[in-house]
Amino acid sequence: MTALPVPHRVVDRHRETHDTVTLRLKPVGEALSAFAPGQFAMMYAFGRGEVPISVSGIPRDGDLVHTVRGVGAVSAGLYDAQVGDVLALRGPYGTGWELSAATGHDLLVVAGGIGLAPLRPLIHDAVLDAEAYGRLNVLIGARGPAELICRAETGRWPTAYTGVTVDRPGDGWTGQIGVVTRLLGLARFEPTATTAFVCGPEPMIRATARDLLHRGLPADRIKVSLERNMRCATGHCGHCQLGPLLLCRDGPVVGWDIAEPLLYVREL
Amino acid sequence: MTAATMMSALPAEHRDRLMRIAREVNVPVGTRLFQEGGQADRFWVVRTGTVSLDMYVPGRRAPVIETIGHGELVGWSWLFPPYVWQLGAETISPLRAYEFDAVAVRAVCQDDPTLGVEVAMWVGKVLAHRLQSARTRLLDLYAPYGSGTGTRG
Question: What range(s) does the Cyclic nucleotide-binding domain occupy (chain B) (predicted)?
Answer without folding.
Answer: 6-75
